[in-house]
Target: Orotidine 5'-phosphate decarboxylase
Amino acid sequence: MIRLTPIVALDVADLTQVATLLDQLSVGPRPIFKIGMELFYHYGPDVVKQVQRAGFDVFLDLKLHDIPNTVERAMTVIGALGVKLTTIHAAGGLEMLTAGKRGLKAGARQAGIEPAKLLAITQLTSIDDRILHEQQHISISLNESVQEYAKLSQTAGLAGVVCSAKEVTLIRQVVGPSFLCITPGIRPFTAQQDDQKRVVTPTKARQLGSNGIVVGRPITQVNDPKKAYYQIAAEFTEEQK
Ligand SMILES: O=C(O)c1cc(=O)[nH]c(=O)n1[C@@H]1O[C@H](COP(=O)(O)O)[C@@H](O)[C@H]1O
Model:
Protein backbone atom coordinates (compact mmCIF):
# COMPACT_ATOMS: atom_id res chain seq x y z
CA MET A 1 0.00 0.00 0.00
CA ILE A 2 1.24 3.49 -0.87
CA ARG A 3 1.98 5.63 2.17
CA LEU A 4 3.20 9.14 1.35
CA THR A 5 5.29 11.19 3.74
CA PRO A 6 3.02 13.65 5.57
CA ILE A 7 1.76 16.59 3.53
CA VAL A 8 2.27 19.92 5.26
CA ALA A 9 -0.23 22.63 4.29
CA LEU A 10 1.62 25.90 3.69
CA ASP A 11 -1.34 28.04 4.74
CA VAL A 12 0.83 31.08 5.46
CA ALA A 13 0.78 34.64 4.18
CA ASP A 14 4.17 35.27 2.61
CA LEU A 15 7.38 33.87 1.12
CA THR A 16 9.41 34.59 4.24
CA GLN A 17 7.21 32.24 6.24
CA VAL A 18 7.43 29.70 3.41
CA ALA A 19 11.24 29.87 3.44
CA THR A 20 11.33 29.43 7.22
CA LEU A 21 9.16 26.30 7.07
CA LEU A 22 11.16 24.81 4.17
CA ASP A 23 14.29 25.36 6.20
CA GLN A 24 12.85 23.91 9.41
CA LEU A 25 11.56 20.75 7.72
CA SER A 26 14.47 20.03 5.39
CA VAL A 27 16.23 17.48 7.63
CA GLY A 28 15.25 13.81 7.72
CA PRO A 29 12.11 12.43 6.03
CA ARG A 30 10.96 15.36 3.95
CA PRO A 31 7.29 16.32 3.82
CA ILE A 32 5.36 17.04 0.65
CA PHE A 33 4.34 20.71 0.80
CA LYS A 34 0.79 21.68 -0.06
CA ILE A 35 0.35 25.08 -1.67
CA GLY A 36 -3.22 26.32 -1.48
CA MET A 37 -5.25 29.26 -2.66
CA GLU A 38 -3.76 31.82 -0.26
CA LEU A 39 -0.18 31.52 -1.53
CA PHE A 40 -1.07 30.74 -5.15
CA TYR A 41 -3.44 33.69 -5.54
CA HIS A 42 -0.69 35.92 -4.17
CA TYR A 43 2.43 34.57 -5.85
CA GLY A 44 1.26 32.24 -8.65
CA PRO A 45 3.67 29.66 -10.10
CA ASP A 46 6.68 31.42 -8.49
CA VAL A 47 5.84 29.96 -5.10
CA VAL A 48 5.53 26.49 -6.63
CA LYS A 49 8.99 26.91 -8.15
CA GLN A 50 10.45 28.13 -4.86
CA VAL A 51 9.31 24.98 -3.05
CA GLN A 52 10.42 22.72 -5.92
CA ARG A 53 13.84 24.40 -6.07
CA ALA A 54 14.31 23.59 -2.39
CA GLY A 55 13.91 19.92 -3.36
CA PHE A 56 10.37 19.25 -2.14
CA ASP A 57 7.44 17.70 -3.98
CA VAL A 58 4.43 19.99 -4.30
CA PHE A 59 0.73 19.28 -3.87
CA LEU A 60 -1.07 22.19 -5.56
CA ASP A 61 -4.49 22.38 -3.94
CA LEU A 62 -6.72 24.77 -5.88
CA LYS A 63 -9.92 22.68 -5.71
CA LEU A 64 -11.16 23.46 -9.20
CA HIS A 65 -14.95 23.57 -9.67
CA ASP A 66 -16.35 25.24 -12.82
CA ILE A 67 -17.79 24.29 -16.20
CA PRO A 68 -15.82 21.49 -17.91
CA ASN A 69 -14.17 23.70 -20.55
CA THR A 70 -12.88 26.21 -17.98
CA VAL A 71 -11.59 23.43 -15.73
CA GLU A 72 -9.87 21.66 -18.63
CA ARG A 73 -8.05 24.83 -19.69
CA ALA A 74 -6.98 25.67 -16.13
CA MET A 75 -5.80 22.09 -15.56
CA THR A 76 -3.69 22.30 -18.71
CA VAL A 77 -1.80 25.17 -17.08
CA ILE A 78 -1.47 23.28 -13.78
CA GLY A 79 -0.31 20.18 -15.67
CA ALA A 80 2.81 21.98 -16.88
CA LEU A 81 3.92 23.08 -13.39
CA GLY A 82 5.44 19.75 -12.40
CA VAL A 83 3.41 19.32 -9.21
CA LYS A 84 2.82 15.79 -7.91
CA LEU A 85 -0.77 16.11 -6.71
CA THR A 86 -3.64 18.50 -7.41
CA THR A 87 -7.36 18.79 -6.60
CA ILE A 88 -10.79 19.19 -8.14
CA HIS A 89 -14.28 19.07 -6.57
CA ALA A 90 -16.14 15.79 -7.20
CA ALA A 91 -19.39 17.79 -6.93
CA GLY A 92 -18.64 19.25 -10.37
CA GLY A 93 -19.76 15.96 -11.93
CA LEU A 94 -18.35 13.35 -14.28
CA GLU A 95 -17.93 15.56 -17.34
CA MET A 96 -15.97 18.16 -15.35
CA LEU A 97 -13.77 15.54 -13.67
CA THR A 98 -12.98 13.92 -17.02
CA ALA A 99 -12.21 17.29 -18.58
CA GLY A 100 -9.93 18.13 -15.65
CA LYS A 101 -8.01 14.90 -16.04
CA ARG A 102 -7.69 15.47 -19.80
CA GLY A 103 -6.38 19.01 -19.28
CA LEU A 104 -3.86 17.90 -16.68
CA LYS A 105 -2.49 15.22 -19.02
CA ALA A 106 -2.31 17.63 -21.95
CA GLY A 107 -0.36 20.18 -19.88
CA ALA A 108 2.09 17.55 -18.70
CA ARG A 109 2.53 16.22 -22.23
CA GLN A 110 3.31 19.72 -23.54
CA ALA A 111 5.89 20.20 -20.79
CA GLY A 112 7.34 16.71 -21.31
CA ILE A 113 6.75 15.64 -17.70
CA GLU A 114 4.69 13.08 -15.77
CA PRO A 115 1.13 14.24 -15.07
CA ALA A 116 0.20 15.07 -11.48
CA LYS A 117 -2.10 12.71 -9.63
CA LEU A 118 -5.60 14.18 -9.66
CA LEU A 119 -7.57 13.91 -6.42
CA ALA A 120 -11.26 14.71 -6.01
CA ILE A 121 -12.58 16.48 -2.93
CA THR A 122 -15.47 14.39 -1.62
CA GLN A 123 -16.95 16.25 1.33
CA LEU A 124 -14.71 18.81 3.01
CA THR A 125 -13.60 17.78 6.49
CA SER A 126 -15.21 20.97 7.81
CA ILE A 127 -18.63 19.53 6.87
CA ASP A 128 -20.67 17.18 9.04
CA ASP A 129 -24.04 15.47 8.55
CA ARG A 130 -25.94 18.42 9.99
CA ILE A 131 -24.39 20.95 7.57
CA LEU A 132 -24.90 18.53 4.67
CA HIS A 133 -28.61 18.21 5.40
CA GLU A 134 -29.51 21.68 6.66
CA GLN A 135 -27.34 23.89 4.46
CA GLN A 136 -26.53 21.87 1.36
CA HIS A 137 -29.95 20.14 1.33
CA ILE A 138 -28.40 16.76 0.55
CA SER A 139 -30.61 14.00 1.91
CA ILE A 140 -28.23 11.02 1.84
CA SER A 141 -25.76 10.58 4.71
CA LEU A 142 -22.30 12.08 4.61
CA ASN A 143 -20.79 8.58 4.43
CA GLU A 144 -22.97 7.67 1.44
CA SER A 145 -22.17 10.94 -0.27
CA VAL A 146 -18.43 10.35 0.15
CA GLN A 147 -18.77 6.81 -1.22
CA GLU A 148 -20.74 8.04 -4.25
CA TYR A 149 -18.16 10.74 -4.99
CA ALA A 150 -15.36 8.18 -4.70
CA LYS A 151 -17.09 5.93 -7.24
CA LEU A 152 -17.64 8.88 -9.58
CA SER A 153 -13.99 9.92 -9.30
CA GLN A 154 -12.82 6.42 -10.09
CA THR A 155 -15.11 6.29 -13.12
CA ALA A 156 -13.53 9.55 -14.32
CA GLY A 157 -10.09 7.95 -14.10
CA LEU A 158 -8.78 9.98 -11.16
CA ALA A 159 -6.00 8.71 -8.89
CA GLY A 160 -7.96 9.11 -5.67
CA VAL A 161 -9.94 11.30 -3.32
CA VAL A 162 -9.54 13.67 -0.41
CA CYS A 163 -11.70 12.60 2.53
CA SER A 164 -11.55 12.14 6.29
CA ALA A 165 -9.65 9.07 7.46
CA LYS A 166 -12.95 8.12 9.09
CA GLU A 167 -14.30 7.21 5.63
CA VAL A 168 -11.32 5.28 4.23
CA THR A 169 -12.75 1.84 5.05
CA LEU A 170 -16.10 2.71 3.47
CA ILE A 171 -14.40 4.10 0.37
CA ARG A 172 -12.24 1.02 -0.06
CA GLN A 173 -15.41 -1.09 -0.06
CA VAL A 174 -16.60 0.61 -3.24
CA VAL A 175 -13.40 1.47 -5.14
CA GLY A 176 -10.92 -1.21 -4.06
CA PRO A 177 -7.54 -1.02 -2.36
CA SER A 178 -5.41 0.95 -4.81
CA PHE A 179 -7.48 4.15 -5.05
CA LEU A 180 -5.70 6.86 -3.04
CA CYS A 181 -7.37 8.27 0.08
CA ILE A 182 -5.60 11.45 1.17
CA THR A 183 -6.86 12.65 4.52
CA PRO A 184 -6.83 16.13 6.09
CA GLY A 185 -8.60 16.90 9.38
CA ILE A 186 -5.63 15.50 11.29
CA ARG A 187 -5.34 16.49 14.92
CA PRO A 188 -2.92 15.09 17.51
CA PHE A 189 -4.65 14.56 20.88
CA THR A 190 -3.24 17.79 22.26
CA ALA A 191 -4.32 20.02 19.34
CA GLN A 192 -7.52 22.03 19.09
CA GLN A 193 -10.08 21.10 16.44
CA ASP A 194 -10.39 24.61 14.92
CA ASP A 195 -12.93 24.66 12.04
CA GLN A 196 -12.50 20.94 11.27
CA LYS A 197 -15.44 18.63 12.01
CA ARG A 198 -14.24 15.14 11.00
CA VAL A 199 -10.89 14.81 12.77
CA VAL A 200 -8.63 11.88 13.63
CA THR A 201 -5.14 11.54 15.14
CA PRO A 202 -2.15 10.65 12.94
CA THR A 203 -2.00 7.18 14.55
CA LYS A 204 -5.68 6.56 13.86
CA ALA A 205 -5.26 7.73 10.25
CA ARG A 206 -2.53 5.12 9.77
CA GLN A 207 -4.64 2.41 11.39
CA LEU A 208 -7.59 3.31 9.16
CA GLY A 209 -5.47 2.94 6.02
CA SER A 210 -4.96 6.56 4.94
CA ASN A 211 -2.47 6.87 2.07
CA GLY A 212 -1.33 10.31 3.17
CA ILE A 213 -2.22 12.87 5.83
CA VAL A 214 -2.54 16.61 5.29
CA VAL A 215 -1.60 18.71 8.30
CA GLY A 216 -1.56 22.49 8.57
CA ARG A 217 -1.99 24.41 11.81
CA PRO A 218 -0.84 21.66 14.20
CA ILE A 219 2.58 22.08 12.50
CA THR A 220 2.70 25.60 11.09
CA GLN A 221 1.06 27.48 13.98
CA VAL A 222 2.96 26.00 16.92
CA ASN A 223 6.15 27.15 18.61
CA ASP A 224 8.26 24.29 17.30
CA PRO A 225 7.05 23.20 13.82
CA LYS A 226 9.99 20.84 13.38
CA LYS A 227 9.24 18.91 16.57
CA ALA A 228 5.53 18.77 15.74
CA TYR A 229 6.20 17.54 12.20
CA TYR A 230 8.56 14.74 13.22
CA GLN A 231 6.24 13.61 15.99
CA ILE A 232 3.27 13.48 13.58
CA ALA A 233 5.36 11.81 10.85
CA ALA A 234 6.55 9.14 13.29
CA GLU A 235 2.99 8.44 14.42
CA PHE A 236 1.76 8.13 10.85
CA THR A 237 4.57 6.15 9.32
CA GLU A 238 5.84 3.85 12.07
CA GLU A 239 4.27 0.49 12.71
CA GLN A 240 2.76 0.27 16.18
CA LYS A 241 5.25 -1.37 18.53
O1 LIG B 1 -7.99 19.54 -0.05
C1 LIG B 1 -7.54 19.66 1.09
O2 LIG B 1 -6.34 19.59 1.29
C2 LIG B 1 -8.51 19.74 2.19
C3 LIG B 1 -9.71 19.08 2.03
C4 LIG B 1 -10.58 18.94 3.12
O3 LIG B 1 -11.63 18.29 3.04
N1 LIG B 1 -10.23 19.50 4.31
C5 LIG B 1 -9.06 20.21 4.47
O4 LIG B 1 -8.80 20.67 5.59
N2 LIG B 1 -8.21 20.37 3.40
C6 LIG B 1 -6.98 21.18 3.55
O5 LIG B 1 -6.13 20.60 4.52
C7 LIG B 1 -5.51 21.63 5.30
C8 LIG B 1 -5.88 21.39 6.73
O6 LIG B 1 -5.33 22.36 7.55
P1 LIG B 1 -5.38 22.28 9.13
O7 LIG B 1 -6.81 22.17 9.55
O8 LIG B 1 -4.74 23.55 9.57
O9 LIG B 1 -4.59 21.03 9.52
C9 LIG B 1 -5.97 22.96 4.75
O10 LIG B 1 -4.98 23.44 3.87
C10 LIG B 1 -7.24 22.63 3.97
O11 LIG B 1 -7.39 23.46 2.83
Notes: The pocket of orotidine-5'-monophosphate is lined by residues 9, 11, 36, 61, 87, 121, 124-125, 162, 184-185, 194, 196, 214-218 (CB under 6 Å).
